[in-house]
Specification:
It contains ten helices and twelve strands. Strands 8-7-6-9-10-11-12 form a seven-stranded parallel β-sheet. A five-stranded parallel β-sheet has the order 2-1-3-4-5. Helix 1 links the parallel strand 1 and strand 2. Helix 1 runs parallel beside helix 10 and helix 4 packs across helix 6. The radius of gyration is 21 Å and the shape is elongated. Bound molecules: NADPH dihydro-nicotinamide-adenine-dinucleotide phosphate. NADPH dihydro-nicotinamide-adenine-dinucleotide phosphate binds next to helix 6. The site of NADPH dihydro-nicotinamide-adenine-dinucleotide phosphate has 31 residues, from helix 6.
Length: 309
């Protein structure tokens, strides 16, 4: 396989201007910005994209997703058409870790209600026993890959008691106990914060639903930086309404953008961010570094890094 030209699809503009990525790559390969929903892929060997288009199946040898989550791509069809798919896992740990630290601090230090009061010009201190500190609170991180490790780093620095869940159950520095998915309920039972950082696959679809919320503390905060469908959103709304859990910080949703009529907007103890937990001004540089590295691997006839298909 030889890659002499790369298309950057307009869809990346959800996260950064496509021109930034083009300019970061033009010294090593021909790069053009296209709208893959309309333009032909024929002149290009590879595409860097956020969206998936069926035209990729016939048009290119290699697709690079600027996201870590590639649940929107049809793996079987890509295999059938011998199209390689790589993702951007590995670049989001620090950004998402800091965002999750921000969520936890917003709840503990009551910054969430303070910001809501500010928009109403209201001077409204929390009640005396409403605020708490994070030190020694238990935080269960479900998924200990790139994202999970970034969250472990920040949670440990804040003095939280960090436990985790991962497929392998293998131990990890900074995580006191690691459970397998079979012991999810044991892991989340005593945790003040339950943070989701798993890929969306069949086994993680609605991983958190009515039974899981019932197993959690009634003051627990659910944090989802994974993918919307990892949480059964209707069951979450029911759990929040019934006070079965204490609150949630959500970056991802079953439908995005979150519809204006979603009840999630209205809860006092829900913090919503618009799928931007991994945003950073370095995003395009980090993607460019991955693409460059893989171009070197292709030249050397080596396996690509972050190869999914
Ligand atoms: P990685 O592949 O690096 O890590 C995935 C982790 O999930 C691994 O620890 C894996 O276990 C664990 N895991 C997989 N299945 C299960 C399961 N059923 N139960 C418990 N743990 C499981 O992925 P990343 O950390 O890079 O990304 C994870 C997901 O986060 C992405 O797929 C994407 O959807 C989302 N994401 C969201 C972002 C945002 O902006 N909100 C930004 C970036 C990613 P093991 O280690 O044993 O294999």
């Amino acid at each position: 396989m030889e890659i002499s030209s790369i298309a950057v699809d307009e869809s990346v503009s959800t996260v950064f201007p496509p021109e930034q990525l083009r300019d970061a790559l033009v010294d090593i390969v021909d790069v053009m910005i296209i709208d893959a929903g309309v333009d032909s892929l024929e002149p290009y060997d590879a595409v860097v994209t956020m969206a998936y288009h069926d035209s990729y199946l016939e048009g290119v040898y290699w697709i690079h997703s600027i996201q870590a989550g590639v649940d929107r791509f049809p793996f079987d069809e890509l295999r059938e058409h011998e199209v390689i798919l790589t993702n951007s896992s590995g670049i989001h740990g620090s950004a998402v870790g800091e965002t999750v630290a921000g969520y936890m601090l917003s709840f503990a230090r009551r910054l969430l209600p303070a910001v809501k009061s500010q928009t109403q010009r209201e001077w409204s201190p929390p009640t005396w026993d409403d605020a708490y500190t994070l030190a020694d609170e238990r935080c269960c991180i479900v998924g200990l890959g790139t994202l999970g490790r970034g969250i472990v780093k920040q949670a440990s620095a804040l003095g939280l008691d960090v436990i985790g869940v991962r497929r392998s159950g293998e131990s990890l520095n900074g995580v006191r106990t690691v459970y397998t998915p079979d012991d999810l309920h044991t892991a989340i039972r005593e945790s003040k914060f339950v943070v989701l950082a798993v890929p969306l696959v069949d086994e993680t679809h609605h991983l958190m639903s009515t039974e899981e919320f019932a197993a959690m503390r009634d003051d627990a905060i659910l944090i989802n930086v994974a993918r919307g469908p990892v949480v059964d959103q209707d069951a979450l709304v029911d759990a929040l309404e019934a006070g079965i859990i204490g609150g949630a910080a959500l970056d991802v949703f079953e439908a995005e953008p979150l519809p204006k009529d979603s009840p999630l907007w209205d809860f006092e103890e829900v913090l919503i961010t618009p799928h931007c937990a991994g945003f950073t001004e370095d995003y395009y540089r980090n993607v460019a570094d991955l693409v460059r590295e893989n171009l070197v691997h292709i030249d050397a006839g080596e396996e690509l890094i972050n190869k999914i298909v």
